[in-house]
Amino acid sequence: DWRGWLERLYQAAALRVVRCFPVVTTSPPLRQALIQAGLSPDRVACLTCSLPRAVEAGLLPTASSRASSRARSRPEDPPAGRVISIGRLESYKRIDWLLQAMGQTPAITHLDVVGEGPLRAAFEALAPRVLAAHQRVVFHGRVGEARKRDLLAQADLLVLPADRCNEAFGLVQLEAMASGIPALAYDLPRSGMHWVSALPACPWNGEPGQLAATLQQLLTDPPRYRLACEQARLRYRDHFATAPWQHRCRELFGVHG
After folding, report:
1. What is the value of pTM for the model shown?
2. pLDDT tens-digit readout, 244-255
C-alpha cells in the first residue's frame, strides 16, 4: 500500500545519504546487506543492541531460578507449553500467524500476548477460530516492566513473529535470552532478528511455514529444550550482555559504554 511505497522511498534516500558517512549497524546480517547495497566494507561496523544494566540485573535472577528448576525436575519432563509474544499489535507483528501456528502445535497450551495496538480486537476474534479446545490465549494489553518480567518468567518460549525488516533487532529477544528462555524470530532479508536468537539446538531456518513444526519439536523434546535454554543464556552472556557491549564500544569509539 502507500505506506510501503513511502518506506521504500525512505530506505532509498537513507541508503544514498549514509554512503557519505561511516555507519554502525546492529547485526552482521544488516552489515552484509549494506555492503551488498554498495557501501564500502571498511566503513560499516557492527555494534549489537544491549539491555540497560538495570534491566539486565532484573532478568538474571529469572535465569538462575529456571536453571535450578530444571535441575530439580526429571530429564524426561517436557515444558508446560507456555509461549509469550511481546510487542505492539500492528499488522506487521503477525500475531495472526502466531495464532495459526499455535493451532497447529498441540504442545502449546497457553499464549500470553503482551502489548496494545489497533489490531487487538481482530486478533482476539481470530483466536477462537484457529485454536484447539485445550489451548488458551490471554491478551494482556500494555503492562508495566515488573508484570512483563513475571509473564516472561512463566514462559517456555518467546516468539517474535514480525514479518518486515524494519523490525531489525528485537530487544525482547534479549530479555528472553537473559532469562534463559529461547526466542524464535523469522529470518527476513535485511533484518538481524533471526540471527540474534538463533541456537544450534533449535532446528529452524526462520521460514514462517516451519514455525509450528519447530515449536512442537522443542516443546516435546525435553533434552533439546533444556539445551536450547542453556544456549540462549550463554548466547546472551557472550554476545549481548553489558560486558561484551562495552568492550565493543571501546573498540569502535575508544570510550566506555
Report:
1. 0.88
2. 999 999 998 886
CA atoms within 13 A on the CB side of 14: 8
Please report the pLDDT score of residue 212 as a whole number: 96
CA angle 117, 195, 21 (to 5 degrees): 85
- What the block records as the C-alpha cell of 225 is 529444550
Spatial contact of 43 and 18, defined as CB atoms under 8 Å apart: no
CB of 62 closer than 8 Å to CB of 180: yes
pLDDT at 73: 79
Contact between 21 and 41 under an 8 Å Cβ cutoff? The reply is: no
Annotate 183-207 with three-state secondary structure: EEECCCCCCCHHHHHCCCCCCCCCC
Cell of 248: 565493543
With 0-12 CB in 10 A as exposed, 13-18 as middle and 19+ as buried, what is 224? middle
* CA distance linking residue 9 with residue 49, whole number of Å: 26
Q: pLDDT below 70 — which residues of the chain? A: 165-168, 255-257
pLDDT of residue 121: 96
Beta bridge partners of 84: 112, 158
Closest of 176, 168, 174, 187 to residue 84, by C-alpha: 176
pLDDT at res. 68: 82
State the sign of the Cα–Cα–Cα–Cα dihedral 203, 225, 77, 84: negative
E-strand spans in the chain? 23-25, 44-46, 82-86, 110-114, 136-141, 157-160, 183-185
The x, y and z cell numbers of residue 197, run together, are: 536468537
Using DSSP's 3-state secondary structure scheme, residue 47 falls into coil
